[in-house]
Amino acid sequence: MKTITHNPAGIYPPTGDYAHALEVQAPQRILYVSGTMGLDPDGAAGETLEDQLELIWSNLRAILAEAGMTVDNVVRVTSYLRDGTYADGNASARVAALNGRVVPTTAIVVETLEPDWLVEIEIIAAA
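Given the sequence above, the corresponding structure tokens read:
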């Protein structure tokens, strides 16, 4: 599988932590992951945003591993934030989790189903 980042001239420039588009050439498998919350194995939410982001990326790594993939296979990230002030923390956690790899990403401010769920993240991965 080959990937090509697209950030065309003539539109607004992306920030350093995301790309406008990522072309995935000849993937053999695509994994669509549901929105994943920062819940521990007992279903309890992490106490802080940082705790929940750590749990989310740990949960995502486990899901990816089950499919024989790693974070290196992630080609798209969508984050659902309970509060817009969580954007910087979420972006920092994403950059760290992806080891600095730049992928298309969107963050949306929403009302989560449970008030203690501060962020939910869904991904698409390809191999």
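The domain at 2-7+27-126 is CATH 3.30.1330.40 (60s Ribosomal Protein L30; Chain: A;). Try to locate this feature in the token string yourself.
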